Amino acid sequence: MSNKILIYGANGYTGQLIVEEALKQNLSFDIGGRNEESLKKLATQHNLDYKVFDLSDVNVIVEHIQTYKAVIHSAGPFIHTAKNMMKACLQTKVHYMDITGEIPVFELGASMDQKAKDAGIVIMPGCGFDVVPTDCMAAYLKSELPSATHLQLGFASYGGRVSHGTALTMVENLGRSGAVRKDGKIVPVPTAYKGQIIPFRADKGRFAMTIPWGDVSTSFYSTAIPNIETYMSVSEKSYKRTQFLNTYFRWLMKKEFVKNILRKRIKKMPAGPNEQERQEGYMMVWGKVWDANGKVAEARVKTPEGYKLTAMCAVAICQKVIGQDKMTGFFTPSLAFGHNLLKDVTGSVFENIHS
Fold this sequence. Notes:
This protein is an alpha/beta fold.
């Protein structure tokens, strides 16, 4: 088998960024997806081979991916698309990586750990903005305070906007509860049930609320810390609005007709941040741990804009995975490559915060 990979969902907003990064890094790859017209256009533009297939039938996926060393799966919402791709990768002994941020997908990957070991492959969801920088932050803080029993992680965006894919995933999750990890178990909590000011930057903190970010799942595997909360920066007005909607209109947000209205609106939005926004924007990631004795470790890190970082990390991680032969099973990014993975890929360095 060659080291050629398949980038599936390559015609999507983030998929195209991954293609561009793979070209920069001279990765040997083909592209795949469900829309022949856009795939053909992309393939012609970059002189690539392409494959058109959907993910409804595992046998069809097997037929199309069996000659590759690995798949970078970038077609979400992954809660609907990851399972069959993972199954096909297990059957064909092809490494699986994706860019999901969805807790059920991480838990699905973890449940396939032994099957991945038996197949001799790596299953690694979350090879993008979610969860590489936060996962590396969690691992870094664990190294700073090995006795940690509680972990909080947060992120804030400075510039840019969300892509169609991210927005559609948010729509899929409307009406669902939030999630935290308590005593080692993922438990449902009200959406936006907590809020706090977080020192994302030294000059000014920002308000943030709890969200069911992927690290509720992955950071436990990376650090064994049993209590985990994840936060996203929002305005206090948005926080209160979210709490109000969750209290009185959660039943309505679950309705499919509401989601369809939002999906139509999303299609009219820009596909995602433009080139200038990706170059000028950046993310701040924060983390804090403490133990039963009151010892605390806290840090932050600045990273490239989220979609730019996703493309960089997905390609770099794929290169690392296909470059080794002994690593098999389910992994988080930091579990596979350590907390310095973020520095290796982006140059970002953790800054300790001294309270």
